[in-house]
Amino acid sequence: MSSAHIEDAARTTGYDARRLHTNEMEIGVTDAVQWHVQRHVMSPNPISQRKLDFEHARPRWIREMAAEALGVFFYVYPGIASTASFFINDTQPAFGSIFQIGWAYAMGIAFAIITCGSTSGGHFNPAITLCFAIWKGFPWAKVPRYIFAQMFGSFLAGLIVVGQYYPQMSSLAAKFRSRGQSPNSLGGPGSILCSFPAPTETNYGYLFFIEFFVDSLIGIIIWAVLDPANPFVTPASAPFIIGIAYANMVWGFANVTISTNLARDFGTRIVAAIFYGGDAFGDYAAISILANVPATIFATAIYELLLRDSFAIIAKGHNVHEDGEEGLTRHLTKTGTLEGIADNIARRGQVRSGKYFWRGPKGRNFAKPTSACFLERCTSGAARWRQALHETSVAEVVFSDLPSPFFFASSSASASVPPFFRRYFSCHQLVSAAMTSFQPVAADDTESQSAVNDFTPTFYIGHHESKRPLPVTDFVLRQAQDVGYDMLTSPITSPHFHSRVLTLVSSYFSELAQLDSLGKSPATSTPPAPIIPPLNPVDTPLTPSDTLSQIIAYSSPWIDLCSPDPLIANISRQVLNIEIAYASFCGVGHIIIPGPRNYSSGSEDNNGLIQYARAIQEALTIGSYIQMAIQIPMYGHDDVREMTGDLQPFAREQYPHERPEENREIDLFETWDAWNYIRGVCKYNSRLSVALGLPRQLPVESLQSRWFAEPLRLLSFTRSTFLKNKGGHPVLSKSHQNLVSRYMRLKQPPWLLLSDVGPVPGLDDPTQLTDIADGFPSPSFVEDASRSVSVSPTPAEAAGSSSKDSQKTKLKVKDPAAHLIYMRYLQRNQPPRTAIERFGAGYQDYLQAPLQPLTDNLESVTYEVFEKDPVKYDWYERAIAHALSNWAPQGKPTSSPSGAVVIAVAGSGRGPLVTRALNASQATGVAVEVWAVEKNPNAYVLLQRHNEEDWGGVVNVVKSDMRAWKGPLRSSTGPIGHAITTTTTAPESPHGKVDILVSELLGSFADNELSPECLDGVQHVLAPDFGISIPSSYTAHLTPILAPRLHADISHRAITDPTATETPYVVMLHAIDYLATSVPDHPRIQQAWEFVHPLPASTLAIAEARRGGGVSGGGGGSMSGGDGANEHNTRYARLKFICKDRGVVNGIAGYFEAVLYDDGEDSKVELSTRPDTIDAKSKDMISWFPIYFPLKNPLYYPDDSELEISIWRQTDDRKVWYEWLVEAFVTVGPEKRMRLGMSENNWEGNGVSFSHEMCDVPNVHDLAKT
């Protein structure tokens, strides 16, 4: 179906036929239902011009009056009908109640607004109409018409109810008259229609007060609902809120009697006077009819004078200033609102955060305290937003709402716009006004701003104090937010709980000492280990509340889970479990657990690390929803701080605690080894992560890369991590800055925790002026940061002098928020992303199963993603151009009768390679005859359209499996296809040959999408002596990697899919570490095998003979029951990798390199996905992600080991699969090695690991491109 036909179908049926092939049930379900109804139930007639003319000719005032009358009718009729049913049946509960009557009025009001509100505005009350005229500018000329229509609607409702209940109401009237009572009294038929007080209610002042108060309350609610700046009311909910307001008053004051609406009462009272006597207009009638008007005016006056925020309405775009932008500018200038904004924008070209800035001494910006802040606090979080200036005098406001997972109620990346933005800065007028004071932006600022616009990562920065003096209250959180922190840490338990535990331990030891003094045997008289009682309110500062979403809990650092004393280890485990359980109860989302006291698991006398790992595993079970981060230094040991009440010294003498030697050599990978041990015991739990402590001296690059691959949740910075610049301000070294930039490129970047850098500024004195960490510090803060001089000690020296550094860095910093200010500066000055990072955003470490290219027909959107890579197609065009340029000089004949070079694109897809072949022909001036072969029937249609509209009909489009294509078809009179130059010379054979065969069948591992099999099948059309293939060869490459995130993901999938660990995946490898070290003869990434095209004719002849059964024997396919025709495409490689540092192999990373064209001279065109050669051969190419071969179980190896990878490409003539095996060896002698371990392997060759049914061949691409 053509697009024109599709559009016609959509117009006539109301159904978008273009969705038929997309399977968009979630999106198209409404259309589908609508189409079904129109097809099977009814077919709507088109709207006639006569109908449009009639509707256009209707007087507006008639429509408005009719809407008001009908609206009041819909409002009054359900209410008085429900009242009639109640009174006529002697108030029996089966026939109604006051509750039912209230709901009847509520729903009637909702029906009225829904039905008629869009036509007239939905006043339905004379008092509301008057208020609109007074406050909203409603035309006074319309007021009488509206009031008349409203009263008429009420009169009509009363008249119809009397007609419907006439016998019953007449009988009720007769009964009242027989008792000497007027029918127009409470309980009589007149009271069904309008309000009458009880006979005992003779105090008309009291009745007026009740009516006035009720009507005032309803009026305020109506005005609040109609306020466009009210964020709590949506248009859809307004009818029901107003209706419920009326119902509430009915339920509360019906026993006294209320009217609530002039029109409702006056119209029905006329009906009561007509049928039941003129006494319906008695003394109370004036109150019932008129009290509603002054009460509603009074209520709306209160709202307009005290509650209305007109500036918010302007900011939301619901209204404008009466004098336009000039008036708004005048207002902002007069009130001082513009002063702070303009001043800061002019100085920095940047709107800061939602605070009021003023310039202090030396040009520094300060934020006024909260009490003096003219902007209301952003209650939804510390959203930071920026304003980009352009060289023109127009300001384009770009707000970057950075939703912190703590200060926002929701951690969703699409959090709502902060209230201060919605209220004050969404209007274009304000920005235009501020532009009057803008100054030009310097060139260097413009470049910096461009980098920020390209990539501004979100830094979530927290504050941690080991000895926080105050509990984390709402005030503390607000103060931290004002300064610029996103989160705070809080201990789970208090010092009171700590003292209880110490008392318990001391009492137990005292009891043991007493038993020892009595000479009793410890084996028979030792009391059981003490049990810590449950928490009391004084034992913890935490309680379930909304503020917990802004807090990271911190477990007690004074416990020792690694203690060799079983008593201390038991008490420590109890403390941890109690804290985890209570934090889980309160709803804490994240907990930091101090790391083990001893990182070595190799000591003969110490089993502390396994005890620690077991305790963490238990804690993960207790806190089943809590994210836990183990605090571990990057290397070495944490600074030893004397803690009052530390449990470690309580260990008994018979259990000596192993302490690290002061001068022993630092084992750089010791802390990583401990972390790997802990997470291995915890089975790679996805809720377990690392809080990594950064030292002052960074280690070697290999260790930094190792931690980069781990699940980092926090990066911890202490005072000792920072240097001092010339101005005395804390800054990070260049290597630290690079590390932060690298780690913040992770798919889930870690949070940054400033630990013990000083208290939150302003807690002692909320009125003090505090620098704001907005990313724009004064130059002295970061001056000479990159040239800061610091003698860099070795890791051993750094560890040994850590205590001295800690004391030195306790010197008072000039600004209490200096560390935070610098970190925000780093955030704003992050380097821009590369092309690959921009393209792969969101795909990092995302596992994708490779396509089955011989059975799948790709969708257009998949092809479209492929075509976004300009590098690949540029390189293909270069290769074709080189081949064409060298064709004649090399003396090659052509296969076309016209003398044109015949090019066939096998698997043309949507035609990008066809376009590039034509471009190469035009650039070189060499005539070509192009054939586009495509199996996908959908892509075939598009290729024909391209040929007609874009290629001028010069391309021969063929729908065929490339292996079944017999070659260019020739006729007796000339070529069937069109070429740039043609001739009438007739060929001897009906099918010609191809000179250049172009394909893009490569996969992530070169051959994993069956490029060898596909090109072997189409080689019969290639000219045997001089034909060339593009690509001409390709090689597969391997390297072992550490990929804990991928391993955890695959292990989780293996729970429901047993083949998950046996399947290679296409993945954009990101959080990984390359384990091998490049040494002579053993590079980090090594070639496994190579495929070359075209194959020798003898190889194809043998394969064809075996396919027919003429040759038997051999291996591969023939041993698996096949005939072995594809055995020439099997491969095997065994590669050795040298690993200097210990590690864990989670899998194998696979890459490829391809030679598109090589004439042996200087025209070599190559593609590469190897990270070490991609820049040299095909920089910024994004078409292929690497392939990942996982290991079912991680393989650990020690320092100075050798890894050997064995990999097979297998086939049984029906499918192709891979088998892989990893072995670890260590050298134990000059010529002797010992195998340490071996991974499992899929030896069965059943295609479970990786198979391609060798049947249909669509255009083949790699899934990484999607």
UniProtKB/TrEMBL annotation:
GO molecular function, one term: protein-arginine N-methyltransferase activity
Locations listed in the record: Membrane
Keywords: Membrane, Methyltransferase, S-adenosyl-L-methionine, Transferase, Transmembrane, Transmembrane helix
Annotated membrane topology: Multi-pass membrane protein
Residue ranges of every copy of the PRMT5 arginine-N-methyltransferase domain listed in the record: 837-1030
InterPro entries to which the protein is assigned, alphabetical: Aquaporin-like, Arg_MeTrfase, MIP, PRMT5, PRMT5_C, PRMT5_TIM, SAM-dependent_MTases_sf
Nucleotidyltransferase is among the record's keywords: no
Record-annotated PRMT5 TIM barrel domain positions: 484-829
Keyword Cytoplasm in record: no
Region of interest (Disordered), ranges: 783-810
Domain of life: Eukaryota
GO cellular component: cytosol; membrane; nucleus
GO BP: methylation; regulation of DNA-templated transcription
Chain segments annotated as transmembrane: 66-88, 94-117, 147-167, 206-226, 238-258
Domain (PRMT5 oligomerisation): residue spans on this chain: 1033-1232
Pfam families the UniProt entry points to: MIP, PRMT5, PRMT5_C, PRMT5_TIM
PANTHER family listed in its UniProt record: PROTEIN ARGININE N-METHYLTRANSFERASE 5 (PTHR10738)
UniProt-recorded name of the protein: Protein arginine N-methyltransferase
